Amino acid sequence: MADGKIRIIGMGPGSEGAIPPAAMEEASSCDIIFIRTLQHPGAGRFTSLGRMWESFDGLYESSASFEEAYGRMAEEVVGAAAKGKRVAFVVPGSPAAGESAVRMVIGRAKELGIEVKAVQGASFVDACAVAAGNDILLDGLAVIGAFRLDEQWPASDKGKRLPFPVPLLIGEVYDRMMAGRVKLVVADAYGDEHPVMVIDAAGDPDKATVREMKAYELDRTDVFGPLTSVFVPKASDARLARPCSWPADRIVGIMARLRGEDGCPWDKKQDLKSLRPYVLEEAYEVAGAIDEGDMDHLCEELGDLLLQVVFQARLAEEEGSFDFADVVDSISDKLIRRHPHIFADVKADTAEKVLRNWEYIKQQEKAAKGMQEGESGPPSLLSGVATSLPALWYSSKMQDKAARVGFDWKTAGMAMAKVHEEVEEVEAVLAGDREALEEELGDLIFAVVNVARLSKIDSEAALKKTAEKFKRRFMYIEARALEMGEKLEDMGLERLDALWDEAKENGM
After folding, report:
1. CATH ID of 249-367, from 1.10.287.180, 3.30.2350.10, 1.10.287.1080, 1.10.3660.10
2. What pTM value is reported for the model?
3. Angle between helix 295-318 and helix 324-337 axes, rounded to 10 deg
């Protein structure tokens, strides 16, 4: 082990008074003091100790990059210690906050077996949090460096920068050029008008300043320097920000494991099409749980449906198309776009106006998409109705879409007249051509769906309810036949119908 020692000393965030007494004692015992920058209010205390000292300010201009400058600092500090000297390396704030040179010094000293100890100064993080009125534990705080925006800022696979779910502190905003870079990133994630605070010399009661401005104004001031940070409050509605940690992370991670190299053979075998039946099945089971009114069952079925969403997203991620986070981003962005009466200045004080706005925005989006894809003409109002829906639901959705532009019966009674008309047309072809009968029956059912819709009745739910009623009554007939020791097929329609009426009388 080399005889030299290295003491890394933090000067604190600002004033000389913030420098710990232990830091001064440790520096006084060293043979040479290296000071990362003299542009700190406390640097003078170390240059006046009567010890050999050297500033690294000149390295910033003579180096091609900050990383190169930090590397050269580490070489000098560790080199002096390797010659047997007791060395102090003095840095702004805390050695543990934003000091790349400190990390390099520790790494190289460890390789050479040189002892390194740190004397902590208060971090700029604490001082900036106080200046911004932020409580790190109660409000949360994310801290990143202005030089590492690309690697530390969360973004979707499509490159869109995302807001943090907690307040953000960006350190190392040394000059106006760096402020311009910070501006672009913050505005991209939060919007041009998002409020920010430029905090300089936090912790120094005589020099500290806090300037509030909008994100787009960040590089329009010259207050930046070695002690400047930018504080970004979280989004006004935290629910709109994409968290760094999602409650769904667990299931996303589990699915990645199931699809991984040592994963489940069944899960690894699936593709988008093979999962399609399960998506439909789980959606219907959710609907069934809603009908039952059983909240525990509903929670379970919603989980099963979420699994299908996560599974499909995982398959798409493996293909390089999108991931689960993109799915969440997509629907979040859509909700904000289609609720301008909540997130913008559009007026819509009734449910009807909201629906009209929604449909208008949706058509605008489709038209824009069609233009991008080279399509000519406006998209159809009905083009967005999924053809995979059950027939009754599909019919009702199309009728509802057409009704929004006035193509509709005014009353359920008027629609009922159409039902009578369609009944007559069915009767006319009942014993005739099968294709004609199929068409007329389809017209009749479609007309009945119209009556249900205008009566505010869900035709799908109504038919399901009737089917369940049929099931109960038929099971009653089966039970009564069993009691009588008879077979259903031997009883004849008249007796079966009598038992049906009996089931009705018993409230089945």
Report:
1. 1.10.287.1080
2. 0.44
3. 110
